[in-house]
Structures are given as structure tokens and as C-alpha cells.
Amino acid sequence: DSGVTQTPKHLITATGQRVTLRCSPRSGDLSVYWYQQSLDQGLQFLIHYYNGEERAKGNILERFSAQQFPDLHSELNLSSLELGDSALYFCASSVDRDTFGNTIYFGEGSWLTVV
Amino acid sequence: GQNIDQPTEMTATEGAIVQINCTYQTSGFNGLFWYQQHAGEAPTFLSYNVLDGLEEKGRFSSFLSRSKGYSYLLLKELQMKDSASYLCAVPFISSGSARQLTFGSGTQLTVLP
Question: Which residues of A54-63 are buried (b: 16+ CB within 10 A; e: fewer)?
């Protein structure tokens, strides 16, 4: 158990809908990262928050957004869902604001299936 | 740009040794990570190399050559439970100032009895 908690573990929804994925980082970690992993692709970096502020964006679609709250938990909002958004979404956390020499720890992921 | 290459699949026999290679291209190297990921599960941290040479940790060792942009993960005394995807990852600058951990596509290792 990495200490990173993600909910829900599984989610099935229809195209066009909106969902929210939630992540609680490890105790003491200030950074939260979101990654997407689909069947035909590796882990794709989406976005990084540090202590409530956005640090960096990767290949995140405009239909997706995220935020980190004062209690450091984070939410990833996915809207106007398409079939291609079906994937495993991972949250990860770390202590520092940068990944230089800084191991990140992954949650168990949220399986999203869009039908 | 950023580029990480590793073989897609490898097969080995229980009790054997296997070496999984990773090559990368980056400016401003800041270390290289190896993660293990079983199907449908979270990636778990295996090793981090920032200096050249071999780092040994039990049955797993990781090697780095910064001048060659090359790393490998060495797994000894293979066990069935080692069947998993092994991900090479390097911090790259994305938008913003922070370096983000970018992963290779992973090497799917199958250990046969």
C-alpha cells in the first residue's frame, strides 16, 4: 500500500457525461500528479499540482481539468466523455515540488469505462 | 524533445537472469527511475540512478551510463511473480518550470516455468 488513495476504483459512464476522480496523497506529500494509462499507450502525464498550485501540464485535454484543495486532496474532472477516454487514471504523490531525485508513489488507479 | 526507448516484450525462464534495456534522450539529465507494474495495478518504485554505475538492491540491480543515455534493469533468480511490465522513467521539462516524470512504454516480461 503506497498510502495514496483514489476513488472510485471503477466507474462506468456514458458518452457525453462528466465524472470526477478523487485522490488523497500520502501523509506529508504536497505534490499530486495525474496520469492516464490506456490499453494501447503507456503512462501519459496529465497535470501536476504542488501545495494547491498548478506546476505543470502535460497532454491534458481541454475537456479535462483538475484542482488541489487546501487539505491537499485533488480531483480530476473529465467532461464530455468520449469512448477514447476509457482508461486507467492514476494519481501519484511526492514530497517535493519537482521530480528531481524525488520518488513519486502511485495510487491503485481509477478504472473509467465510457460506453 | 524527449524520447525513451525500451523493448516491448521479453521472455525468460524461472531462475534465470534477464536484462531490460532503456535508452533515453534528454537535455539536463536528472536521474532515471525504474518502476514495476503488474497488469491493472499501480506502478511501484524499484530504483533510482543519478550517477553512473550499478546499484544493487537484492535480486534487482540497475545500471546507468549518462554519456551513452543508457540504463538497464537486471533481474536475477527470476520468479513467476516477476512477470510484469517494467517502466523506465526520466524527468523531463514540460510546460511550466517543473520536471515531470515521463515514462517509457514499458517492457512486458513473461517468466516461464
Answer: ebbebebeee
Q: For the segment A47-75, what is each residue's pLDDT rounded down to a tens digit?
A: 999 999 998 888 899 999 999 999 999 99
Which cell numbers hold the place of A89? 487514471
| Contacts (Cβ under 8 Å, ≥6 apart) of B72 | B19, B20, B21, B22, B62, B63
If chain B, 113 residues long, is cut into consecutive pieces of 10 residues, what is the mean pLDDT of each piece? 88 97 85 94 93 94 95 97 96 69 94 96
Residue with the three cell numbers 501519459: A44
Q: Give the distance, in angstroms, between the CA of residue B52 and the centroid of all CA atoms in the same chain.
A: 15
- CB of B43 within 8 A of CB of B34? no
Cβ within 8 Å of residue A112, ≥6 positions away: A11, A13, A19, A21, A78, A85, A86, A87, A88, A89
Q: State how beta strands B9-13 and B107-112 pair.
A: parallel
B50 — contact with chain A (CB < 8 Å)?
Answer: yes
CA distance B33 to chain A (A): 8
- Report which of A19, A21, A1 is spatially closest to residue A9, judged by C-alpha positions: A21
Under an 8 A CB cutoff, do B43 and A90 touch? yes
CB contact under 8 A, A42 and B98: no
Q: Rounded distance, CA A102 to CA B47, Å?
A: 11
Q: Which residues of chain B neighbour A99 with C-beta distances below 8 Å?
A: 30, 91, 98-101
